[in-house]
Amino acid sequence: MTGSAVRKLRASFASHTVLIVLSAIFVIPFLWLLGTSLKSLNEISLSNLTIIPRVFHWDNYARVFERIPYLRYTMNTLFVTVMSVIGQIISSSLVAYSLTKVEWKGRGIIFPIVVATMLLPFQVTMIPVYMIYQKLGLVGTYWPLIIPTFTGAPFYIFLLRQFFMTLPDTLIQAARIDGANEWKIFSRIVMPLCRPALAAVGIFTFLYTWSDFLGPLLYLNDNAKYTLTLGLQAFMAEHYTEWDLLMAASAMFTLPIIVMFFFAQKYFIEGITLTGIKG
């Protein structure tokens, strides 16, 4: 074996070792969550922490639905998440298309302003936006969680803009020559070509909305409208916490996120990769 081959083998071994260690760091807490969800409350209270339970209590998952209105919280979360995904895909793609493929005065000025708004954290605009929704009588409803997604998000606009810039302008010009208006070009030509980028935006939005806690905490004050994050926090804030049921509910809470990522992993990676081709 030559010296270069040995160096490549060592480098490969070192990189794989680092990846395995990092993977273990991220996987162990999840395994602990699953193990704890199958333990009894007495076993969880013991000082010796173990991942594998002594006795598997599968009934913890059934008891979750008795102690928590889990299905109602899931449907509430699913409604907000689906509406948010639809809103972000429609609004962000429209803005990104207008910034790349439609000529209009001031286009070069608007995009830096849109990107600059990412410097404003949510905590800065939280109180003024809350007061606006309160004046409109929307506090206590899902609208404050859904309406912002139909106005576009700067990060998703930037992401889609980078992808749209890779599409040839000759394709758009040929469609205009054939008599297609901007809406037909956008819906029938551009959108089908940018499925990977749209999938990345959809996944990002799904992950953020599904696990969002601060938004529902601000605007939802009715137990029947709670999302999963808010419902689980309310269950934990009771006079004592049933950690076995809380861990079982948390395990079910993370399941859609894992399923979503594994099924859409190809489109997610492809979308993120292609958006960085052209600046």
UniProtKB/TrEMBL annotation:
Residues 74-264 form the ABC transmembrane type-1 domain. It comes from the Bacteria. Gene3D superfamilies: MetI-like (1.10.3720.10). The keyword Cell membrane applies. Keywords: Cell membrane, Membrane, Transmembrane, Transmembrane helix, Transport. Its main location: membrane. InterPro entries: MetI-like, MetI-like_sf. GO terms for cellular component: plasma membrane. This is Carbohydrate ABC transporter membrane protein 2 (CUT1 family). It comes from Paenibacillus taihuensis.
